[in-house]
Automatic annotation (TrEMBL):
Residues 86-230 form the Dyp-type peroxidase N-terminal domain. The lineage of its organism: Bacteria, Bacillati, Actinomycetota, Actinomycetes, Kitasatosporales. Residues 241-429 form the Dyp-type peroxidase C-terminal domain. Keywords: Heme, Iron, Lyase, Membrane, Metal-binding, Oxidoreductase, Peroxidase, Signal, Transmembrane, Transmembrane helix. This is Deferrochelatase. It catalyses: heme b + 2 H(+) = protoporphyrin IX + Fe(2+). The chain crosses the membrane at residues 40-63.
Length: 442
């Protein structure tokens, strides 16, 4: 999972409503039509920020100002829909996530796809601002604030043939190669369209999922859908890298926006010609998402001793520090040996193999969700990681690292890749635009 990264512009929000608010970025403490807009003070939990004043539309139904209660910091956090990049890429990890892929319906083409992306973008903008979805809102998120909701849209390889846009399909979207660790279910892989939803409240996230599915109408049908979760903001005494279901700190060496080459590694250049002309113009400021459903064989993993688990990963389980010493962020000493001359970090340790300097500089932002889908007939948990990684080019990011993991990662015997997808995620929509407009109307 990602380390805390620079978020998109965020403001405090207020409950969804229909009764004449001043908009989600209004920072005034006012009272209008009997509805109080109060300051929302408090810490932002995992984000470590102190929130300022509240804004946004009022609740669904007008309530006496004396009964109005400020939202908690978790509910008030808002991520902006419009921007250079789509939300949900550098946004700090959210507590709840839904991934959903669609296939265009028979007979649907470019025109229908454009209308669908226009509807989806409008719905995402409304919901991320803490407003109702529009006509037919289900009231699931009634009383809640934006809760850091993000909705992110992407296009799969098959989308371009379905819409007659093959010439606009990026080379970087070529299908991923086969890996020896793959046990892929084709029915839960790929898709014409992909949507990532994240929020810090489960009902807000589900509300968005339902709205997106309803907006698809007759233009597209659900191909697959997966649900995930992470630690809730504020659950720890101080902001820290999250853990996965193996109990390991996950995401320590993620690229950070403060890195000088972050944009180059994660996003397509604003001038695609700067990348040797390999990227189409409509992908300017976009990114590529690799999505993998990775089942963790927890019964086998939990039989290992603590020492054995740490040697598989190459880091201490307690704090994520490398076995060679220091803290979580200390550089790993790959040459360090013990008194017997044995490498302290085993040659097949997961953390050694995945280091960018061991993979020609290949890097990606990992931003996953954990999942648990119950137990099979033998009582074995169907649980693991909805792995999502972001990069400017998967052929230079995900693929070389996964190929190396395929050749000898100690972790491979405790995981199984069960679904996969690769999606082109265009840059953010400007005011008045919808996501993908430069592709569909270019």
């Amino acid at each position: 999972m990602a380390d805390k990264s620079k978020p998109e512009a965020r403001v405090s929000g207020a409950p969804r409503g229909t009764s004449g608010g001043t908009g989600p970025t209004d920072l005034q403490d006012t009272t209008r039509e009997g509805i109080s807009r109060r300051r929302l003070l408090g810490t932002a939990g995992a984000t470590g920020l102190v929130l300022g004043t509240a804004g946004a539309a009022a609740g669904y139904a007008a309530a006496p100002s004396s009964a109005a209660t400020p939202l908690t910091s978790v509910g008030s956090e808002q991520v902006m829909f419009h921007g250079k990049h789509q939300p949900g890429i550098t946004t700090p990890m959210q507590a709840r996530g839904h991934l959903i892929a669609f296939d265009l319906a028979a007979g649907a083409g470019r025109k229908e796809a454009a209308a669908l992306l226009r509807r989806w973008s409008d719905t995402a903008r409304r919901l991320m601002a803490g407003e109702p979805a529009g006509s037919g809102d289900t009231d699931v998120a009634r009383d809640a604030g934006p809760s850091s909701l993000t909705v992110t849209f992407g296009f799969g390889h098959s989308f371009f043939a379905r819409t007659g846009l093959e010439k606009q399909r990026p080379v970087a979207l070529d299908p991923l190669p086969d890996f020896s660790s793959d046990h892929l279910d084709k029915n839960r892989s790929n898709g014409d369209l992909w949507v990532q939803i994240g929020a810090d409240d489960a009902l807000v996230a589900f509300h968005a999922l339902r709205a997106i599915q309803k907006d698809a109408g007759s233009a597209a049908r659900v191909r697959w859908q997966m649900n995930g979760f992470n630690r809730s903001p504020g659950a720890t005494a101080h902001p820290m890298t999250a853990r996965n279901l193996m109990g390991q700190v996950d995401g320590t060496r993620n690229p950070k926006p403060s890195d000088t080459d972050f944009e180059k590694r994660v996003f397509v250049p604003g001038d695609p010609g700067a990348d040797g002309g390999n990227q189409p113009a409509w992908m300017a400021n976009g990114s590529y998402a690799v999505v993998r459903r990775i089942r963790m064989l927890l019964d086998d993993w939990e039989k290992l001793s603590l020492k054995a688990q740490e040697e598989v990963i190459g880091r201490r389980k307690s704090d994520g520090a490398p076995l060679t010493g220091g803290t979580e962020t200390t550089e790993m000493d790959l040459e360090k040996t013990d008194a017997a001359g044995k490498l302290v970090v085993p040659i097949n340790a997961h953390a050694r193999i995945t280091r960018p300097d061991q993979n020609g500089g290949a890097a990606m932002v990992r931003r996953p969700f954990s999942y648990h889908d119950g137990f099979d007939a033998d009582g074995v948990p169907d649980a693991g990681l909805l792995f999502i990684c972001w990069q400017a080019d998967p052929l230079r990011g995900f693929v070389p690292v996964q190929r190396k993991l395929d050749r000898g990662d100690a972790l491979s015997q405790f995981i199984r890749h069960e679904a996969s997808g690769l999606f082109a995620v265009p840059g953010g929509a400007a005011e008045g635009e919808y996501v993908g407009q430069r592709l569909l109307e270019g």
